[in-house]
Amino acid sequence: MSDEIKQIAALIGHHQALEKRVTSLTEEFHAASLQLQQQSETLTRVIRELDSASGNMTETVRKSVSTALSLVEKELKQTGQEQQKPAVNALNQVVKAANESVYAMRREMSRYTWKSAIYIVLTMLGVMGGCLWGMYYFIDSGYARIAEMQRMEAVWQKKAPLADISTCDGKPCVKVDTSQSFGDKKNTYLIIRR
User: For 82-111, b where at least 16 C-beta lie within 10 A, e where not — what string?
Assistant: First the structure.
């Protein structure tokens, strides 16, 4: 995306340079038009002076001079417009490239949004599936151990009805009072053989 941003920035810089060129050409056109107007005024003044001096100046000469001035003015305007055409074409190309870049960025953002949503949903499904499998496994193994303990409890109660039966590190064990037989005052657990 940074390349596209650089391209857009370059296009904007190019656009600004073209605007400066168009402004320069417009100023030159106005200066030439002003000069032409001044020359026209000078020519009109000279014609009047010639007309008054000679008295033979005809209307056709005035028309031909006026026509010549109109042609020169049209040529100047046409030249200015022709010089502006490349600038206008370049600006249109810049605008088109910028619009294409914006469209491409929007399309990529849309794709990214959908991909993100799909990854989030898949991750949630994976986590939920893992949780369900873990619950099933631990509940199933817990019920199996409880059933085994209940089955073995009856057997152990028959073997030692007064024994305190428990589990030690996941194995069944019985609490033994060692103080009477060994004279020690501590209670220990011994593992029961099956």
Answer: ebbeebeebbeebeeebeebeeeeeeeeee
Kindly report the pTM of this predicted structure: 0.32
Q: Which of 187, 190, 192, 188 is nearest to 159 (CA)?
A: 192
Percentage with pLDDT > 70 across the chain = 81
Q: How far apart are CA 112 and CA 119, in angstroms?
A: 10
Q: Where are the beta strands (DSSP E) in the chain?
A: 164-168, 171-177, 187-191
What does the pLDDT read at residue 148? Answer: 80
Q: Which two tokens stand for residue 17?
A: 């340079």
**Is a pLDDT exceeding 60 seen at residue 30?**
yes
133-143 tens-digit pLDDT: 988 888 888 78
Alpha-helical regions (H) of 160-169: none
* Residue 183 φ/ψ region, left for φ over 0, alpha for ψ in the -120 to 50 degree band, beta for the rest: left
